[in-house]
Amino acid sequence: MSETRTALRAKEHTMNTAIAEVGTVSHPVVSRDRWVAERKRLLAREKELTRLRDQIARERRALPWVRIEKNYVFDGLEGRRTLAELFEGRRQLMVQHFMFAPGWGQGCPSCSFMADHSDGMTVHLAHRDTTFVAISRAPLAEIDRFRRRMGWQFKWVSSYANNFNFDFGVSFTPEERAKNEVTYNYGTQPFESEELPGISVFCKGEGGDVFHTYSSYRRGVEAMIGTYNLLDLTPKGRDERDVDYKMEWVRHHDRYEPEPSAKAAAVGSCCAAHA
């Protein structure tokens, strides 16, 4: 019996290796009892991750704050607003640093992917004393034209007239490009774009002062992307190519091609192989 199990595991390993090379989705088919046993082992690991995430969240909330000394003023559809006014009477402000430079014509596809998740969250955030706003360096007219095209309702203001984006390390100057060195995500790196993504959080004190409490960049922005959280539950996962820019597949939601029926059929045949 032991030799049989060893042979079966070897066969499964060989099958998985071959299948991985052609990029299909397939796994050994087992009994329900064995599946439950494997799932319980994974559940224990998931609970470890949940407890670690809760601990990190506590440490995040315990970070010291920095008082905002500059008087940033933004252009919005309701007129010019200071950073303090963007809170709209709430104590907390969450900012998406949306990559959209002057003259681009449209916002970054990946930042748009993030923003596609925002409208459904804003009402819930508001009921937890938090206002959400996107901030970009493009002039307001360019922002509003693109926002209307995408059908978004969340508040989005322009920092075109101030240094907010530069101060928070998500926009970069021609001088930095010429030097090929920028400060981003709490370190230095070669210049890659005049804009990069991020999320920042601010809190307003009893006296009206505004404090910077947190910022996250790089994969930290995945906190906004519920689609990724769901894809991580599926057999194919995020299904992204092994390239530096994993989000190469993302398009503006009005620019995707229809899903080819042949591709859907191929996925169906893969599942049928286990029937």
Q: Summarize this, please?
A:
This protein has helices at 2-22, 32-61, 109-115, 119-126, 140-150, 164-167, 174-179, 226-231, 261-272, and strands at 66-67, 73-76, 79-82, 92-97, 130-136, 155-158, 182-184, 187-189, 198-204, 210-217. With 275 residues, the chain is an alpha+beta fold.
Query: Radius of gyration, rounded?
Result: 23 Å
Please tell me the overall pLDDT: 87
Sheet having the most strands: 6 strands, mixed
Number of helices: 9
Shape type:
globular
Beta fraction of the residues? 15-25%
Head-to-tail CA distance between termini: 26 Å
Order of helices and strands: HHEEEEHHEHEHHEEEEHH
Helix content range = 25-40%
In the predicted model, the low-confidence regions spanning at least 5 consecutive residues are 1-22, 265-275
The tally of beta strands, per DSSP, is 10
Q: How are strands sequenced across the largest beta sheet?
A: 1-10-9-4-5-6
| Structural class by secondary-structure content | alpha+beta
Q: What does this 3D model show about the protein?
A:
It is a single chain. The protein is an alpha+beta fold and 275 residues long. 38% of the residues lie in helices and 17% in strands. It has 9 helices and 10 strands. It has helices at 2-22, 32-61, 109-115, 119-126, 140-150, 164-167, 174-179, 226-231, 261-272, and strands at residues 66-67, 73-76, 79-82, 92-97, 130-136, 155-158, 182-184, 187-189, 198-204, 210-217. Strands 1-10-9-4-5-6 form a 6-stranded mixed sheet. A two-stranded antiparallel ribbon has the order 2-3. Strands 7-8 form a two-stranded antiparallel ribbon. A hairpin with a 5-residue loop joins β9 (198-204) and β10 (210-217). The protein is globular, with a radius of gyration of 23 Å. The model is unreliable at 1-22 and 265-275 (pLDDT under 50).
